[in-house]
Sequence to fold (293 residues):
Amino acid sequence: MSIYKPVDSTCEQGRSTRILALACAMVASASVLWASSVKTQQQQGGVPRGSDKSELKEPSETKPSRVPEGEFILQVDNKEITPTINLIAKEARVAAIAARLSTELGVPVKLGPAISKQEITLDLDGLTLEGLLRYLAAKPYVDYVAGGHDMGQPKALAIYLYGLNESPPSPNETSSDRNQSLYVQGDSGDTEEGTEEYKRREKKEPLEVTFTDNRLSVRAEKQSLNRVVTRIAIELRIPYDVEGETTEVLSVNFKGYPIDQAMRLLSPSIRFYYRADLTNFENQLTRMVLKSP
Fold:
C-alpha cells in the first residue's frame, strides 16, 4: 500500500535557488580568469587564441571627430607602383585639399567655381588617385601621358575638379604643342576615301581604322607604323608628331578596344596623351607621338 506525501514547494524552491547561485558563481569565476589571461597576453604582446584582434586595437587618433573643424590630413604613399592616398577631413575646403594634393603629386589641379567653394567631411583610406577624385567632385578628369619605350605607368599631367554644370578646359592645353604637332584634315594618300580607286588601293594595301562609341578598331596587314598612326589621327581628328625615324611594320587585327589598350597593343613606339573622364569611365585620345626606338 503506497502512501502519497505532498512535496514541500518551499524546500524545492530553496534547492533550485542554491543550484542557480552556484552556476552563476562558476560563470563569474571563469570570466575573471579569462579577463586575467587577456590582460597578461596584452602585456606580453600577444592575443589569446580565438579572440578578435580588432577589439584590442586602440581607437584611431585621426578620425574626423579628432580632426579640428576646417582641417584635414592628406597622406600619399608612393612605395607601390600605383600610389595610394589617405584623406581625413572635417568640413575642410576642397580648394585647400586640392592645393595640398597638387604639391604632393607635383601635378596642377584646377577647380571649377562651384567646387572651389565646397567643404567636405571624409574618412578615406588606401584609395588610388582616381578613386579619391571621385569623392572630391561631381565631374573629375585627369590628363595622362602614356606609352613610349621609356615610360611605365601613365603619368598624370593635370587634374580637373568640376561641378555638374561645369566643363574643363580643352585637353590641348596639356597634350599638344601647336608649333610642332601635325593636324591632318583628310586621307594621307592621293585618292579620296569612298571612291572605287580608294577601295582598290585598300584591297591591295589593306588598312582599316574605325572609331565608334569611343572604341577603336584597326585592321592592318604589313603596314608601316607611320601610316597606321596617320590613319588613326585622321579618324579621330587629333594632332600627332613624328620624333625620329622608324621602319616598324604592323600586322594587327582588333575590334572595339578602349583607346589606352589599343595604343599599347599597336606599338611601344607610340606615346599617347588622353583625358580620363572619371564620371563616365571613358578615355579621350588627344594626341599621339611616334618615337623612334
